[in-house]
Amino acid sequence: MSVASPHFLLVDDHALFRTGLGMMLSQNWPQSRVTQATTLAQARAVLAQEQPDLILLDVHLPDGHSLLDLPGLRELAPACPVLLMSAEVNGQQILQARQAGVTGFLPKVATASEVLEAVRSALGGQVSYAAVPYEVLSQAGGEGDVPAAVMEVAEADLRLNERQLNILRYLGRGTPNKAIARQMGMNESEVRAEVSWLTEWLGATSREQAHAEAVARGLLQP
Question: Which CATH number fits domain 7-155: 2.60.40.1080, 3.20.20.190, 3.10.50.40, 3.40.50.2300?
Answer without folding.
Answer: 3.40.50.2300
